[in-house]
Structure formats: C-alpha cells, structure tokens
Design a protein that fits this description.
The protein is of the alpha/beta class. It contains 11 helices and 10 strands. Helices cover about 40% and strands about 15% of the residues. It binds 5-bromo-uridine-5'-monophosphate.
C-alpha cells in the first residue's frame, strides 16, 4: 500500500474552512513553529513580559485570563500589540461548558469580553451542539475559531471513546467555526483540522494533581498531533527563552520527520 503523502502546514491552508485555522497554518509555516506557550501567571505585567520574551518562538499564546488579579482592557490591547509584533495568535483557554445562549454571552460580555481579543477559544461538548452554535454567532463574524475538547491530558479524564468520536462528528458539521481539537493526538485525517496537545515536557511525568506529561516526539511524531502546548516546561524553567527555543526546534523537527515518514 502506498501511504498518502503528508501535507505541509502551508498545503493545509486550503483544506481549512475556518479563517483562524487558515491564519494559524500560515504562521506555523512562516515561523517554523508548532509551539503554543501558556504562561499561567497571575499578574498582567508578568504575562506581557513572557509574551514579549517568548513571542519569537511561538505560533500561539494560550491564556487563562481569569487567573489574572489585575485584568484590564489595556492589558488586552498590550497583548494584541505584542502578538502583532511577533506574529503569533491568541488562544483563551476558557473551556466554555454551558448552554449555547449563556456560552455566547460569556464569550461576548462580562469583564473579559474574550471574543474582542482572543483569536481562538475552546468548549466542552457536554451540553451538545447548541454550545457551538451559541459561540459561533458571536465568534464567526469576527473570524474567530473554536477548538472542541475531544480529549484531556489529565488522569482519569472522561473525555474518551464515544465522547471523543462525537466531538469529531460535531466538528465536521461545523467546519466554518470549529478549527480543530484539544486532543492527545490526531483524531481525523481531514487535513483542515488542527490538533493541539497540552501536557507536554521534555521528560514524561506527572504533576501532583493529575497532569500527565508526554514528550514532544510522542505527541507530534507518534500521535500525529499538530501543536504542542507547553507551560511549566518553559515558564518554570531557569532560562525560559532557551527552553522555548529548544521546544520550538524539537516540535518543528518532529513535524519534519513526520512529513518524511
Ligand atoms: P503545563 O504547565 O504545561 O502543565 O500547562 C498545561 C496547560 O494546558 C494549562 O494551562 C492547562 O489549563 C491546559 N490544559 C491541560 O493541561 N490539559 C488539558 O486537557 C487541557 C488544557 Br483541555
């Protein structure tokens, strides 16, 4: 059997339907980076400092704005200008989980107004397809993209089996807005979807609260994911910049090897 040739990030642009997915594939190709960095800090200034320092190495910055003790509108404007300077996108890891109407309101309103500044966000599919519709009404006019939580990295996760399959089926029904998945590896051969994997470090291991770390090679090369999401592996290191450079080259080289195989 002749294996189907793997497509490059650039070649996958035309397969993606969602505009944020197209933009992300383009940045991944241009910057030769499949690294998403999450500085899970509690002060806006620390987050902005990390974003500026690590920005050159990443395609995507993942935030948890509700960790910030001093969130402000100015913070979002500063983050956007750093994202522009270093050419990366922003992913607020909000994990929406309510009925469509409320999720849509939470995305648009409240203190954070996530849809105003975050290119990408994500949702659990526990409520059913209405959550995708509710978020889409707010996000799609702004060319935002949604990731479905198809799997999680934590031990004992219930996102598996039929649940994961349902996430893939829902994504295929909403390709205009759903750009891909949070998953532990590739879930579908459709090259338009992007798979992002958290729980990544240089060494396998766990934290004290159920996080399970996999290596870059196992995620990109063996499991066929597209993006590594790295937090403590970078921000808790002695030299975050050096670690970010390492993760960028580990991730990109694993992708290049996958293309060859
Ligand atoms: P870490 O420091 O590399 O462990 O950070 C992992 C990040 O990814 C953290 O922000 C989590 O909220 C996020 N995460 C995760 O770890 N596992 C998951 O299944 C999902 C998100 Br979904």
């Amino acid at each position: 059997m002749i294996a189907e040739k793997a497509l490059t990030y650039e070649e996958r642009i035309e397969h993606a339907v969602n505009p944020a997915a197209k933009k992300l594939f383009a940045i991944m190709g241009e910057k030769q980076s499949n690294l998403c960095f999450n500085p899970d800090v509690t002060k806006a200034a620390d987050l902005l400092k990390f974003a500026d320092e690590i920005g050159p190495f990443i395609c995507l910055l993942k935030t948890h704005v509700d960790l910030l003790e001093d969130f402000s509108y100015e913070f979002t404007q500063d983050l956007l200008s750093i994202a522009k300077k270093h050419n990366f996108m922003i992913f607020e890891d909000r994990k929406f989980a309510d009925i469509g109407t409320i999720s849509g309101k939470q995305y648009k309103h409240g203190i954070y107004k996530i849809s105003d500044w975050s290119d990408i966000t994500n949702a659990h599919i526990v409520p059913g397809p209405g959550i995708i519709e509710g978020l889409k009404q707010v996000g799609l006019p702004k060319e935002r993209g949604l990731l479905l939580l198809a799997e999680m990295s934590s031990s004992g996760t219930m996102a598996k089996g039929e649940y994961t399959k349902t996430a893939v089926a829902l994504a295929k029904e909403h390709k205009d807005f759903v750009m891909g998945f949070i998953s532990m590896g590739k879930l579908t051969d459709d090259p338009g979807f992007i798979h992002m994997t958290p729980g990544v470090k240089k060494q396998k291991g766990t934290d004290a609260l159920g996080q399970q770390y996999k290596t870059v090679e196992s995620v990109i090369l063996e499991n066929g994911s597209d993006i590594i999401i790295v937090g403590r592996g970078i921000y808790a290191a002695e030299d975050p910049k050096k670690e970010a450079a390492d993760y960028q080259s580990l991730g990109y080289n694993a992708y290049l090897r996958r293309l060859e195989n």
